């Protein structure tokens, strides 16, 4: 029973990542190496050290696949979109398991292409999750063999000894790729659990003094009525400010823990009412003042339901509300009712949640970077904080999030989700 549970926790339920370490530099480096490598190796195997079979058209097609990683919009986006992950997976399925298997069969499994196929197998396991790599390699080799049997050039049959020798070498490469892939996946999982556990301990340690501060704030506020005049009023203000500070700190702790949880597998999605979600999140938000609370106006033109994690989307609403309110605070005038307008509506099979603020806005350079992880404008607007988290959550529900903004003209964040 314990062995079965361990296999389920550490192998079957761990994250399936189409792109491992999807940094812009890494994806571009893969694109450049694929685009340049195939023409170079064509020259090597066709002109310098000729092999039985080479195909310029296929080499140029593989190079074009590498070029597509550099020119298709959104492929190098960080974090990657679902579409980018599909494009990446498709490109490397073609250029690694399919192409190298095809060339292996067309060259009768000679030493050059045996070594090349083994290297491609290990590279493929290093690029993507081991489960996706195993499925991709099996299907790629099968499709390549069927294509070879149907369209392939005439080649001499491999001897039994060569076939068996090649099978042993390829089985060894596959086994090592599989073992290294599983161990890397579980290592990332353990590191993630350790990080989240450390965050939980830190959150607990922070909440203890915050609870003491909350008690002090209440004591100060209770003491205020016993002091007449300016002293009592000042005590009441101090107690209120301290209480608000504690609420904000607890809110920030909850937000950071929820942001970290995004990296874990989120199971049991549920149907969520967009209107109820927005109303609950805006009512529970720890506003710094009554005027700030009054600046937020919610309008529901038509409710809709979507499938996702309620806690995660609650945090998305919190993040967007916080950013908009900080943008308003950076403006010179005090916030007025309606300065942050949150609209909920649906059209056909798509629902929308739109945040429109009259804050300081952003220029084009900042707008391009706000969804990058760990990027913050740090210029008083607050935009960009937590937006990478928001994008990941929305994309995880098969939705989109986009922004329209200009300096001193506010910002409009639009979330679109499929109606459940």
TrEMBL record:
Transmembrane portions of the chain: 29-50, 56-77, 84-105, 111-127, 134-152, 164-182
Ranges where the Histidine kinase domain occurs: 201-420
Gene3D superfamilies in UniProt: 1.10.287.130, Histidine kinase-like ATPase, C-terminal domain
EC number(s) on file: 2.7.13.3
InterPro entries the UniProt entry points to: BphY/WalK/GraS-like, HATPase_C_sf, HATPase_dom, His_kinase_dom, HisK_dim/P_dom, HisK_dim/P_sf, Sig_transdc_His_kin-like_C
Catalytic activity field: ATP + protein L-histidine = ADP + protein N-phospho-L-histidine
Molecular function via GO: phosphorelay response regulator activity; phosphorelay sensor kinase activity; protein kinase activator activity
Keywords: Kinase, Membrane, Phosphoprotein, Transferase, Transmembrane, Transmembrane helix
UniProt keyword Protease, yes or no: no
Top-tier EC class: transferase
Protein's GO biological process: osmosensory signaling via phosphorelay pathway
PANTHER family: OSMOLARITY TWO-COMPONENT SYSTEM PROTEIN SSK1 (PTHR42878:SF14), TWO-COMPONENT HISTIDINE KINASE (PTHR42878)
Listed name of the protein: histidine kinase
Organism: Ramlibacter cellulosilyticus
